[in-house]
Amino acid sequence: MTDLGNYTNTSEILKKYQFHLQKKYGQNFLIDTNILHKIVEAAQITKEDWVLEIGPGIGTMTQLLAKMAGQVTTVEIDRELIPILEDTLSSYNNVTILCEDILKVDLLALSKENGGRPVKVAANLPYYITTPIIMALLESRMPLVSITVMVQSEVADRMRTGPGTKDYGALSLAVQYFAKPEIVVRVPASCFLPRPNVDSTVVRLTRYKEPPVVVDDEAFFFAVIRASFNQRRKTLANGLANAGSLGVSREQVETALEKMRISKTVRGETFDLERFAELSNLLIHMRE
């Protein structure tokens, strides 16, 4: 079976199947073997692992994963790619191909089908739905060990940044609540076919066994974070009070801030994970 991961072999496969790129799926195929090996190495795949791959494309990374892992389940939304995957992965008996939208897959049920074994995720994610996919994975109750993914560089930087920077926001806090984010390698646009308009970054998110902060109501905690960044220019008190779904008044927010010994004019973008946890814990009990 032809190893993929370079321009020549990828082009031949696409030509063989007369495959036409679907812009709506944000398809860009990685054609750099060195980067592929770095992704798989960063994911720390062993024969004991069940790997979930999202968006396999023509099976370029899947081939490497199949050689390293005990079992690989790959989820591809584009039906036109399934015959190609069945061809490029025909030599591997440890790969299951699912033609599904990953955002509609019951991830917990899928993990149970694989014996409830710990799962490592590897993916070259479509840029247009990167955040929803990452959040779905992190919020799922499956036994997730890590997520090693290729994303737009701007998104990778948002995952790692802290208070006071322009990239800091709800995604930063959500990722850092669930996992430790680490940059693996920067990937120039020239490593893809077709070439995207932006550079990419491989990031590894290592799931915490327990979140670094204690929150009394996780859903409310995240609602507070989202409301805090929906209106970045407003004070935290005004932003949260304007979010009717939270059910808190400006006076309640100001009282909570006073208990925290923080100015009433503070903005959400200055709060770190610990402060958001403290604030949400105070507010949830004021609501009761």
Write up what this structure looks like.
By secondary structure, the protein is of the alpha/beta class. Helices cover 40% and strands 18% of the residues. It has two domains: 7-207, Rossmann fold (3-Layer(aba) Sandwich); 218-287, Helicase, Ruva Protein, domain 3, CATH 1.10.8.100. The protein has helices at residues 7-16, 33-43, 60-68, 82-88, 107-113, 130-139, 153-160, 170-178, 218-230, 236-242, 250-259, 273-287; strands at 29-30, 50-54, 71-76, 95-99, 119-124, 144-152, 179-187, 192-193, 200-207. Strands 4-3-2-5-6-9-7 form a seven-stranded mixed beta sheet, with helices on both faces. Helix 6 (130-139) packs parallel to helix 8 (170-178) and helix 9 (218-230) packs across helix 12 (273-287). The mean pLDDT is 91.
Tell me the layout of helices and strands.
Layout: H1 7-16, E1 29-30, H2 33-43, E2 50-54, H3 60-68, E3 71-76, H4 82-88, E4 95-99, H5 107-113, E5 119-124, H6 130-139, E6 144-152, H7 153-160, H8 170-178, E7 179-187, E8 192-193, E9 200-207, H9 218-230, H10 236-242, H11 250-259, H12 273-287
Parallel strand pairs: 2-3, 2-5, 3-4, 5-6
Antiparallel strand pairs: 1-8, 6-9, 7-9
Helix pairs in contact: 6-8, 9-10, 9-12, 10-11, 11-12
